[in-house]
Amino acid sequence: MGKEEPPSTSKELQELQRKLSLLMEFIQGNSKVVAFMKSPVGQYLDRHPFLAFAVLVFLAVTAVPVGFFLFLALLASLAALVGVIILEGLVISMGGLSLFCILCGLGFMSLAMLGTILMPCMVVSSLINYWFSPR
Question: Which residue spans traverse the membrane (predicted)?
Answer without folding.
Answer: 50-72, 78-104, 111-132
